[in-house]
Every structure is written in structure tokens, then in C-alpha cells.
Amino acid sequence: MAKRSLVAAISMALALSACAGSRDHKGFVLDPTLVDSIQAGVDNKESVTRTIGRPTYTSQWDPNDWYYVSRNTAQLAFRDPKVTEQTVLRVKFDAAGNVVSVEKTGKETIAQVDPSGDKTPTLGRKRSFFEELFGNIGTISQPGLPGASQQ
């Protein structure tokens, strides 16, 4: 009997430990002292790189915008992770490579995207399974279209 209760206690402990939460950090580790030391009109790309490192990414529209992204998340068991803290540091440079501005934003800039159902709306005619499967049988390809034979 004691053996059964020991096995049951161990099983219960393992089952409960599977529901434990986890915390995670992703991205750049921001040091507030170093970030506050970056000044517009004083620093340039080289000094920013020496002070806080290379950016997480640069803007695809303007290579003079550098972004440093830091995010902390918490997750319980198998649920989706929730953002507990986020910081996005944007360092903007002028054409000569000098710092123009330093901006910090938080998790208020996170966009929540909710899908609108199980299907993506599409334009055009709705076809049944069999129309999709057998719809091209007997069609004649036109010259110049992909898959058409060139004569």
C-alpha cells in the first residue's frame, strides 16, 4: 500500500510540474545607463555600435533608422506566451551618420491581429471539391500561356 501511495505522489508531482509557467527574454538586453548615454548631435553610428552594439534590425525603407528590440514573455503550460514587457529603441541618424534622435516605446505599440474566421475571403467564383478536381479536364491551352506547347 505504501508503494502505491508513493507512486501516486510521484505521478501527481510530475503532472503538476508540467503545468508550471515559464518566463523568457528575447532580443536585445537593454542597459538603461548605456541607452541614456546616447545623445543626439554628439554620437554617430560608430559610437552607438561601440556603446550598445549592432541593432536588432535596420529599417527596410531607411538604413539610417536602427531598431533595438527587447521583449519579456510569460507562458503557463501550453497556452500562448503573453508579452509582459517590451522595449523598442529607435536610433535615427542623418545622412552623415550622426544621431538625430533616440526614441523608446513600450508594449503599447504591439498590434493585436485577430483572424476573421477559419477561411480567408477570396474574390471569384466558389467551386465545389469536384469542380476543383475535374475542372481542367478538356480545356485547351492557348499559346503563350504557361504550360502551353510552343510550335
Automatic annotation (TrEMBL):
<feature type="signal peptide">
    <location>
        <begin position="1"/>
        <end position="20"/>
    </location>
</feature>
<dbReference type="Pfam" id="PF04355">
    <property type="entry name" value="BamE"/>
</dbReference>
<keyword id="KW-0998">Cell outer membrane</keyword>
<dbReference type="InterPro" id="IPR026592">
    <property type="entry name" value="BamE"/>
</dbReference>
<dbReference type="InterPro" id="IPR037873">
    <property type="entry name" value="BamE-like"/>
</dbReference>
<keyword id="KW-0732">Signal</keyword>
<feature type="domain" description="Outer membrane protein assembly factor BamE">
    <location>
        <begin position="27"/>
        <end position="101"/>
    </location>
</feature>
<keyword id="KW-0472">Membrane</keyword>
<dbReference type="InterPro" id="IPR007450">
    <property type="entry name" value="BamE_dom"/>
</dbReference>
<protein>
    <submittedName>
        <fullName>Outer membrane protein assembly factor BamE</fullName>
    </submittedName>
</protein>
